Amino acid sequence: MTMADTQSLLSPEELAALSASFSDDSASASAGYNLDVQVRKHDLAAEDSSLGVNVASLDMINERFIRLFRLGMLEVLRTSPRMNPTRTQIVRFGDYLKDLKAPLSVNIVRMTPLRGYAMVVIEPTVVFSSLDSFFGGFGRGVGQLPPGRLFTPTETRIIKIILQVFFRSFKEAWSPLTPVDFEHISSEINPQFAQIVDENDLVILSRFESEATSQGSGFVDMVIPYVALKPVRDLLRSRVQTGDGNEDSDKVWRAQLSDAVHDAELEMQILLGKLSVSLQQLQNMQPGDILPFKKADFARVMVQDMPVYDVEVGAMGGQVAIKIVNAISPNAPT
């Protein structure tokens, strides 16, 4: 095809019309151009260690959540759990599962409007501590349970109460960012059966740890697939206000909680000494037997099996009395 043939394809009038369509910005999508597309700048050289998720915003949400969770547990179980959030992590789901040991309360939930499923994991120490507090105890936990051990109906009921408070508190904590809702799907005791995503997929791990006790420390985990947060990633990048709008009510709650704690009654025991005997000696003991033992420098005041003070035992006003010598550190050897 010669140049002359090419020039004859369009008439002068057609060339003028085509040129005018571009000069007056009248080109349409039918001509192969979409002028309505919004382009967002992306810096390939910028470092983004959070893989596009503002972890700091999630940490602030978790701080708000734990305050609400403590208040909710106080209202329902008559105890305020001594739990604190750890730093939010982005981990592979398989790596997270490797650190878990059954039995656990593993709960699969749907967190609308986010896609897919999330997971709430409650360690048994938290369950038994809440159970003990509910029946008037001091929140003692439990050690490691046998792998195949199932939760009893009473323990399951406590787990449901914890989940209800958890969901309500999480919804309120997320409300400044975006409204969310929870639907409980299923429960397991073995985390290996809770495959909410592939083991190589990334998840957002928010862990809330209880303070260590003689039975160990417990935790509650909120595990959300990384891909589920993509629709709200831009919201997470924006600044999240630290206040939840209830600062005044929080102050009132703290004052009421402090007053309630100060009025709590405690049983004190005075430990004068200890001695060891064999089972045979115990069986052969008779009224009038004398058992010598080494007297310590001071007697010890015990509160709920915890040493509190070293004291001297004496008399005052015709009654047996004690004189406090020094306080005992909680970490001191007993």
Q: Which percent bin holds the helix content?
A: 25-40%
Element order, helices and strands? Answer: HHHEEHEEHHEEEHHEHEEE
Count the domains: 2
Please outline the major beta sheet. 7 strands, antiparallel
Characterize the overall form. elongated
CATH architecture of the largest domain: 3-Layer(aba) Sandwich
Q: Structural class, please?
A: alpha+beta
SS summary, helix count: 9
CATH topology of the largest domain: Chemotaxis protein chec
Q: Please give the alpha-carbon distance between the first and last residues.
A: 103 Å
| Low-confidence segments | 46-50, 240-244
Instruction: State mean pLDDT (0 to 100 scale).
Output: 81
Number of strands: 11
As a percent range, the share of strand residues is 15-25%
Q: Rg to the nearest angstrom?
A: 33 Å
Task: Explain this structure.
By secondary structure, the protein is α+β, with helices and mostly antiparallel strands. 32% of the residues lie in helices and 22% in strands. Strands 1, 2, 3, 4, 5, 6 and 7 form a 7-stranded antiparallel β-sheet that branches. A 4-stranded antiparallel β-sheet has the order 8-9-10-11, with no helix packed on it. Strand 9 and strand 10 form a beta hairpin.
Summarize the structure.
By secondary structure, this protein is an alpha+beta fold. It has helices at residues 3-7, 12-23, 55-77, 93-98, 124-134, 153-174, 233-237, 247-262, 279-284; strands at 83-85, 89-92, 105-112, 118-122, 181-188, 202-210, 219-225, 268-271, 299-303, 306-316, 319-327.
